[in-house]
Amino acid sequence: MAPFLAYEDKGAKLSTPLPLVLIHGHPFDHTMWTPQVSAFSPTRRVIAPDLRGYGASPVVPGLTPLSTFAEDIAALLDELHVEHFVLGGLSMGGQIAMECYAQYPDRIRGLILADTFASPETPSGKKSRNEMADRLLKEGMRGYADEVLHKMVAPYADASVAAHVHGMMTATPPPGAAAALRGRAERPDYRDLLTRVTVPSLVVVGEDDEYTPVSDAKTMAEALPDCTLHVIARAAHMPNLERPGEFNGALARFLGRVDGSA
Hints:
By secondary structure, the chain is of the alpha/beta class. The protein contains 11 helices and 7 strands. The longest helix is centred in the last third of the chain and has 18 residues, at 244-261. InterPro entries: AB_hydrolase_1, AB_hydrolase_fold, AB_hydrolase_sf. This is Alpha/beta hydrolase.
């Protein structure tokens, strides 16, 4: 049976290091992980799916809870015969990674949380997410993409990075983005879950991230029992694209530690 999700799967399928699974944020697709796929696939299997409603994956209108995204990831990995892996996600992808750990912790050997946060949505946040979902369905993605581009990537970011991010946002199907926004508005509180994570974890954040500031990253890192925190200077919400060399260096050191413990 063909997997439900579209995905990129690079690297040796039977490589000794644990596979690395990377979950993109909103409103992007798997190509946001291109620098990481390129850097790590020569030495390990790297799998980067398009979430439902994004990229080349099917669009399911309505409301998509984080639990459904996590179930999709598990189903894809079952199809690919991947039992144990290191899991990473950025922003919404980080929250999906936390939900994956809540659902199937025994499969996850290391957890990477980039530019994300664990707390539930506030009443005003729920209202704004649902209003934005309505707006995207009515107006499409371009106006939103134009408005938030330089919060996603810093104004001083390389022009090619900004163009890539803007292109991902404008290519996202509005019904998929709206369904994710409505689901994210209802997300659970993952703060207690973090205190019960038994695998090594890495928290990464851009120093100039306005969406998920360094203070949020520090709070998560303090809650996680075995965590490394890495703050990337001169980066905003997408340090993996804005400063890929530094991001990949932190990720390589973390993966080396996870591989050693495995």
